[in-house]
Amino acid sequence: MTDLLSLPMQELTRWVTQELGEPKYRAKQLYDWLHKKQVRTFGEMSSLPAALRQRLGETAFIAPVESRLKLESQLDGTKKFLFALGDGNCVEAVWMEYHHGPSLCISTQVGCRMGCKFCASTLGGLVRNLTPGELLGEVYEAQRQTGRKISSLVLMGIGEPLDNLQNVLTFLDILCSEEGQHLGYRHISLSTCGLIPGIRELMDKKLGLTLSISLHAPEDGARSAIMPVNRQYPIGELMEVCREYFTVTGRRISYEYALIDGVNDTPEQAAALARLLEGQICHVNLIPVNPVAERETRRSSRAAVERFGPERVAVGGDAREGLVRTAGWEENAGVDYLAFARQMEDLGVRHIIFTDIDTDGVLAGPAFDRLEALQKTVSCAITASGGVSSNADLRALRDQGLYAAIVGKAWYAGAVDLAQAVEEGGPQ
Ligand code: SF4
C-alpha cells in the first residue's frame, strides 16, 4: 500500500501515471485534495471518478492522525493535542494563538533516543520515526480541529527532528509547496540537541528556516552529563557549525538553556555562556527546567536564577538585539513589571513577550490588572504556553525589525498545569 500523503508532487505524479496509468492532471487533483482541501478519505474526493477512488482505496492510504484528547485554555486559546497514529502510538502537539496568527508545535518521533537527562520524551527510548504523511497529519488534524490555518510551525515536540531528517525534509517540502499549504520556510523553526551532520545538511539546503539549539550548558563536562549527544558532537564543534550556519543563511540562531539546580546555574557558568556566545548575533532563551517525576533534575532556585543573571548572557554585543530575561517563578514573586517595561523601553525594546515558559499554564488573577498598565507603556504579546512559543514570537518580531524580551511566569497566579490535567484525564 502506498502512503500517498508522504509523496511530494513529483513522486505522486510518477505514481499516478506509472502505477495507475492515469493522466498527469489526476495527480494534480489528488494533491489538491490531500494537501489543499486536506480530506481524510478517498470517498471525499468528488472530482475523481468513482472507479479511480475505488482503486486508490485498494492500492494506497492516507496516514491516519486523529485527535484523542484536546485540552484548551479558556483564556488565550492555547490547545494541547494528543494525536493517535495508525499503529496506536500517540504524539503531542501544541496550538498557540499569537497576534501574527496561530502557531503549531509538533512532534517528529515517537519517543527519542537522545537520552537528555531532563527530558521525559526519551524515557522509553526511540519507538519510531514519524513519516512525512504523519507529520503533515499533525498539522492538518490540528487545523481541522480548530477550523483555522497555522501561520507558523515549530518542530520542538517529542523527538529530535534531525534524527528523522529525510522525513522532516520531505514533510517540509510538501507543506511549503505552492500546490499545498504554501507555508513559508521563514515561518518554521526547528529545534535540535546538536546533531552536527543534520545542521550541515540544513545549512547546505539554505531553506531559510530558523534553527534553535538546545544548549543547556556552556562547557563539555556539564553538557555531556545531561546531554549524551555532546560526547559525539562537543560544544566547540557545535559552535563552529552554528557560526557557519549564520554566515551562510543569515538566520539568527536561538539557544535554549534550561536552568537545572546545581547543574548549569552558577554565575561562573553564566559567564562561560556569555564567553561562548560572544560575537554571535543570536537569542538565548533561559528556561527553568520542567521537573519530570522520573528524573532527578530540579529547577534552579529563584536566587540561583538571579545570580545567573540575564545581563551576563546579553548577546550580540547590544542588549537591544539579544536581550534575555528570566524572572523568578514563585507565584506573585513581586517583580515590578511596569518598572521592567519602562527599563526596556529606555533600552529601545518595543515589544515584550510574556511567556509562562515552564508549564503549559493559563494566565489568571491579578496579573491581568498589571498587564493593562504595561500595555500602555510597551506593546505586549502574551502567551501561556511553553518556551517553544516564545521563540516563534521572537523570530516574528525580529523579522519585523522589532525587539523583544522574555519574562518568566513569576506572577502567573492561578496557573494551571495542563500536562497534569492530561494525566488526570482532564477537560476535553
Ligand atoms: S533531543 Fe529533545 S526530545 Fe530528545 S531527549 Fe533531548 S530534549 Fe528530549
Care to describe what's here?
With 428 residues, this protein is α/β, with parallel strands linked by helices. The protein has 3 domains: 2-61, DNA polymerase, domain 1 (Orthogonal Bundle); 65-333, Aldolase class I (TIM Barrel, Alpha-Beta Barrel), CATH 3.20.20.70; 337-423. The protein contains 16 helices and 16 strands. The protein has helices at 9-19, 24-36, 50-59, 132-146, 165-175, 196-205, 220-226, 229-232, 235-249, 267-277, 302-308, 319-322, 337-346, 367-377, 387-399, 418-423; strands at residues 2-3, 60-61, 65-72, 79-85, 90-96, 103-106, 109-111, 126-129, 152-155, 188-192, 210-214, 253-259, 282-288, 351-355, 379-383, 406-407. It is elongated. Residues 311-337 and 349-428 have low confidence and may be disordered.
What is the topology?
Blueprint: E1 2-3, H1 9-19, H2 24-36, H3 50-59, E2 60-61, E3 65-72, E4 79-85, E5 90-96, E6 103-106, E7 109-111, E8 126-129, H4 132-146, E9 152-155, H5 165-175, E10 188-192, H6 196-205, E11 210-214, H7 220-226, H8 229-232, H9 235-249, E12 253-259, H10 267-277, E13 282-288, H11 302-308, H12 319-322, H13 337-346, E14 351-355, H14 367-377, E15 379-383, H15 387-399, E16 406-407, H16 418-423
Parallel strand pairs: 1-2, 6-9, 9-10, 10-11, 11-12, 12-13, 14-15, 14-16
Antiparallel strand pairs: 3-4, 4-5, 5-6, 7-8
Helix pairs in contact: 1-2, 4-5, 6-9, 13-14
Bound molecules: iron/sulfur cluster.
Q: Which outline best applies?
A: elongated
What is the CATH topology assignment of the largest domain? Answer: TIM Barrel
Query: What share of the residues does DSSP label as strand, in percent?
Result: 15-25%
**Mind telling me which CATH architecture of the largest domain this is?**
Alpha-Beta Barrel
Through-space gap between termini: 34 Å
CATH first level of the largest domain: Alpha Beta
Detail the poorly predicted runs.
Answer: 311-337, 349-428
- By secondary-structure content and strand pairing, the structural class works out as alpha/beta
Mean pLDDT: 76
CATH superfamily of the largest domain: Aldolase class I
Rg (CA only): 22 Å
How many strand segments? 16
Task: Characterize the largest beta sheet: strand count, sense, and whether it forms a barrel.
Answer: 9 strands, mixed
Distinct ligands: iron/sulfur cluster
